[in-house]
């Protein structure tokens, strides 16, 4: 399998053993990457739950094979995606995840149901 991109919600689902996390099989996770923007989002949510910031950062990175830097190309794509995603309420973090997947031409995994409606040129897998 080629690279797959994980949204912050998918990483959190796996870390917290939530419903849908079983769909993130070993095969999927072998080449799982995430944007550093999404890893910051995971860390933020964990810190809000009382985690030590350093431990939260380690846990955020634990499940991915690569933390992909947010590039200027991805920033441009994320900014441009507002036209297609605004009506669905996607955040900058959401659009950053999609931008990475678009650049890598990779499928993306999320728990966000609303993403089923998106048509952005890459496969989107909603895990619950």
Q: Helices and strands in order, then pairings?
A:
Layout: E1 4-6, H1 8-15, H2 26-29, E2 32-35, H3 36-48, H4 53-62, E3 66-68, H5 72-80, H6 82-85, H7 92-104, E4 108-110, E5 124-126
Short structural description:
The protein has about 130 residues and is an alpha/beta fold.
Key words describing this protein structure:
128 residues, 48% helix, globular
Describe this structure in words.
With 128 residues, the chain is α/β, with parallel strands linked by helices. The protein has a single domain (4-126), classed as Rossmann fold, CATH 3.40.50. 48% of the residues lie in helices and 12% in strands. The protein has a 5-stranded parallel β-sheet. Helix 1 packs across helix 3 (36-48) and helix 3 crosses helix 4 (53-62). The mean pLDDT is 97.
Find the structural class using helix and strand composition: alpha/beta
**Which whole number gives the mean pLDDT?**
97
- Ranges with pLDDT <50 over ≥5 residues? none
What is the CATH architecture term? 3-Layer(aba) Sandwich
Q: At the third CATH level, what is the topology name?
A: Rossmann fold
**Proportion of strand residues:** 5-15%
Q: Could you give me the name of the CATH homologous superfamily? A: 5'-nuclease
Query: Biggest β-sheet, characterized?
Result: 5 strands, parallel
Order of strands across the main sheet: 3-2-1-4-5
What is the helix/strand order?
Answer: EHHEHHEHHHEE
Q: Based on Cα principal axes, name the global outline.
A: globular
Radius of gyration: 14 Å
Q: Write down the domain tally.
A: 1
């Amino acid at each position: 399998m080629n690279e797959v991109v994980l949204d912050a919600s998918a990483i959190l689902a796996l870390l917290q053993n939530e419903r849908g996390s079983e769909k993130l099989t070993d095969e999927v996770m072998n080449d799982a990457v995430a944007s550093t923007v999404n890893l910051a989002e995971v860390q933020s949510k964990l810190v809000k739950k009382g985690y030590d910031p350093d431990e939260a950062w380690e846990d955020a990175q634990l499940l991915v094979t690569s933390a992909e830097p947010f590039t200027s190309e991805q920033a441009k794509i994320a900014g441009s995606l507002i036209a297609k995603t605004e009506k669905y309420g996607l955040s900058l973090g959401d659009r950053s995840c999609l931008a990475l997947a678009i650049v890598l031409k990779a499928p993306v995994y999320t728990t966000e149901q609303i993403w089923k409606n998106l048509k952005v040129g890459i496969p989107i897998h909603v895990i619950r």
